[in-house]
Amino acid sequence: AGPSRAKMSLTGTSKSPPSIQSLAMRLLSLPGPKVHRARKTMAKPSNGQVGPAGGLFWMPGSLPCLREGRSRAVSDPLPQPCPQVPEKRVSEMLESHPLGDASGARGPGGGLEEWETEVGEDFSLFYDSYSVDEHGDSDSKVGISASSTKRKAKKRWKNDSPWVKPSRKRKRKETQPKDGRGVSNETSSLETERFEELPLCSCRMEAPKIQRLSEAARNHCMATESADGELSGCGSSIVKRETMRPSSRVPLMVLCETHRARMVKHHCCPGCGYFCTAGTFLECHPDFRVTHRFHKSCMSQLNGMIFCPHCGEDASEAQEITIARAEAPTPAPRPTGQEPPDTPGRADTSQPSARMRGKGEGRLAPPDPLADGIDSSGGPVLVLPSGASISTLGLGPGLGREQLEKALIIHEAERRKKLRFHPRQLYLSVKQGELQKVVLMLLDNLDPNFQSDQQSKRTPLHAAAQKGHLEICHVLLQAGANINAVDKMRRTPLMEAVVSNQVETARYIVRRGGCVYSKEEDGSTCLHHAAKCGNLAMVSLLLATGQVDVNAQDNGGWTPIIWAAEHKHIEVIRLLLTRGADVTLTDNEENICLHWASFTGSAEIAEVLLNAQCNLHAVNFHGDTPLHIAARESYHDCVMLFLSRGADPEVRNKEGDCPVDLTLENSEVWFALQLNRKIRQGILNRAMRTERIISRDVARGYENVPIPCVNAVDNEPCPEDYKYISENCETSTMNIDRNITHLQHCTCQDDCSSSNCLCGQLSIRCWYDKDGRLLQEFNKIEPPLIFECNQACTCWRNCKNRVVQSGIKVRLQLYRTAKMGWGVRALQTIPQGTFICEYVGELISDAEADVREDDSYLFDLDNKDGEVYCIDARYYGNVSRFINHLCEPNIIPVRVFMVHQDLRFPRIAFFSSRDIRAGEELGFDYGDRFWDIKSKYFTCQCGAEKCKHSAEAIAMEQSRLARLEAHPDGPARTPLGSPPSSPRGP
């Protein structure tokens, strides 16, 4: 065997026997000679690991409004499940917008008379409004002729609310209930009469089939659902034209298959006619197989007793149930504009479908987040020819809401003019803010997504967002406008609102699902525009979404903070800094935000950036520092600030000019630079040194982040006795198996977060969380092997099992220590489990390592059962070669496989073993084998309280061994503060 070498390895402080290697390791292992070496070590993997409708508007509460006018008994309940329009408000609308005759208000359906004449007398029940008296009604009691009914309908239309369709009422004689003093067990005529008076439901009955539907139905389901006190229509297509209703109190309805099934199950309340979808209801159980649902306010009452409106059973024992929204079997809403209204039916879309989509095919709009805010006063709803509905639902109170309500009410008078519009007129009317015309154009079936070359492919929503017409944005989105439509410059409506400083419009679009991170043609995002405009409220709105990248760069490399610095928006800069803005990012000409702050002459912004650790000595593509730019522009305040912070006035740019050469002679800036030069010359030999940057990036751009080098100890320059590389290299043939067909790989289609990921199974499990950090349960004493996804995997490059191969992400600094030469420290707070860097160097064999002259940078790859290889960072390496030994380490080495799965050549990755503060030195445990050799030449200088390799600890250990040799039969006591020692083989 050759001479003993000092090598780092993955074993760490543990001297226990190595754990059983994986099956793949044992298959690739061959016994080798035992040689005592000193190497940096790390722990072994744990045991058992295995290797590699048109022009019709209606009120949501119209049905209860009609029922209020019906004759009722004193004991009848008055269900009010939905909000009503205030009388004062209705009267104001009637005075300001009087209606014409009934024929004009009925729309193109031919009127009620034409429809009733066609469907026959049997279907007149659809328009009959039955009184909810104590006698009840039956579907067979139709005693009024069609002509009489028509006259009553016309007369009633003149007096009813202008927001509801005409309804009929029938006068019936009310039979006074007899005073029964008791109920006997025998069946009496009084008891029989009383129970016959209870109205029963007709949920399982079907009325005559309709051959032609009115404009109210348009082949769509007429069901109204009650969910947590809110009402919503169904609108799904119908298959059968037979009508149904839960009781004679409710008009006949055509229903979709889902609501027909729910009607048969008695899930529709007979009192109000609303389907009990979500919320609190009462349930009657006449049979263990049958449940009757109804509202508490809709119970039948008779002689002080309550009964189920479905079956007439005693409702005192009915159970109160609460149905959550998620449990409600509500059918999927029909996408706006995707199915013509005359389609007889379509497949059920309530279940997810495996459907491929083209690049330009739009997805369904996300659910309206404002739909929960139902206006307590109600409002008109306008159904467009496309099937979409326009209402004030979700629009906040204010002038815009009032204007929209007015436009929805008086649209009929304007429609009688039979106006026709060109598709391009919609954009112009939107831009002018003509809400009434916009509504009429949408009723004329104009496309809200129409794009014209004359407007650079801008949609009407672009114009509404740019001008801040919130109510028009609301109408267009309800009409089916694409909220993320792009123009020729790839600009979205949200970007238009941001550029125009329309905060409320932008907030509305964001709440409706507008994309906040999309980029236009030049790479700018909404945050770029908001920072450029200096709108603090807009920037706060975008950052509050949590979906924007605060460090996004446009095509010029400018970040939002660079735009804010150029336009002197200091409050925006402060806000961006609190949200993690990176002041070290450069644009395409290598300018950082401090360059732009000096270009604008804002010393206040420059000071804020310097306090955020911005590099004062940064050099752009032309070799100019911020001091060069401030001197050229004659900004005296900026020059004084930079000089007070230690800027070097002797630095020359690529043209050979220093800052003083760029100023006018005898100017304030010239005098300041000359004075600073003399002061610096006078204090060159002062005793106290200050930290100075001697290299702005030791990696020369090979890493994701720059790694500066500073020295505040002596005059030692930046180390240059090695070649910086970012990946391991070879100077001799290693025969590494890089055959892609030999790689075990996963076939995941997600982010590899499932337990079925083969790469995760090779590592026992995937040890990374969603932030790319090691899990808390990761074994830091004996770290297992980690197999990251490779180029043979079918997963995406940004899956969560690709951490080490993504490179360095944390900000590090190479600095001169007082006792240990060069060291590496963190420039930011690093959470536990974060990937720091990889130990990179030259791959050599064990035999080659034994003949190397300098063994200070050897890292043993620790393949005990086979041939051993090492990484030597003496001549080729990265920043990890400067990481010092710490007896209380804050980082741990872990073996990782990425490009290949040759178990002889793992990659050595360093992860933080605990939270690391900014400015704290990084270090790992070199291992006992390293110090067994190197302790003869130098001792540990980490300064830890429990340092194991300091001069004092070594002296105490030698004293203990001497006593043990003098008294071999006596007990060997371990000196206080010295760790127990156990010899281990090579």
Automatic annotation (TrEMBL):
EC numbers on record: 2.1.1.367
Ranges of biased composition (kind: Polar residues): 10-20
Location of the region described as Disordered in the Swiss-Prot/TrEMBL record: 1-20, 36-55, 134-191, 327-378, 964-986
ANK repeats: 456-488, 522-555, 556-588, 622-654
Molecular functions per Gene Ontology: histone H3K9 monomethyltransferase activity; p53 binding; zinc ion binding
Comp. bias regions, Pro residues: 977-986
Keywords: ANK repeat, Chromatin regulator, Chromosome, Isopeptide bond, Metal-binding, Methyltransferase, Nucleus, Phosphoprotein, Repeat, S-adenosyl-L-methionine, Transferase, Ubl conjugation, Zinc
Gene Ontology biological process terms in this record: methylation; negative regulation of transcription by RNA polymerase II
Record Gene3D superfamilies: Ankyrin repeat-containing domain, SET domain
Domain SET per the UniProt entry, residue ranges: 810-927
Domain Pre-SET: 744-807
TM annotation in the entry: none
Record's catalysed reaction(s): N(6)-methyl-L-lysyl(9)-[histone H3] + S-adenosyl-L-methionine = N(6),N(6)-dimethyl-L-lysyl(9)-[histone H3] + S-adenosyl-L-homocysteine + H(+); L-lysyl(9)-[histone H3] + S-adenosyl-L-methionine = N(6)-methyl-L-lysyl(9)-[histone H3] + S-adenosyl-L-homocysteine + H(+)
GO terms for cellular component: chromatin; nucleoplasm
SMART domains: ANK, PreSET, SET
Protein name in the entry: [histone H3]-lysine(9) N-methyltransferase
Primary location recorded for the protein, binned into one broad class: nucleus
Pfam family, one: Ank_2
InterPro entries reported in the protein's UniProt record: Ankyrin_rpt (IPR002110), Ankyrin_rpt-contain_sf (IPR036770), EHMT1/EHMT2 (IPR043550), EHMT_CRR (IPR047762), Pre-SET_dom (IPR007728), SET_dom (IPR001214), SET_dom_sf (IPR046341), SET_EHMT2 (IPR038034)
Matches recorded under CDD domains: EHMT_ZBD, SET_EHMT2
Organism: Pelusios castaneus
Compartment(s) of residence: Chromosome; Nucleus
Keyword DNA-binding: no
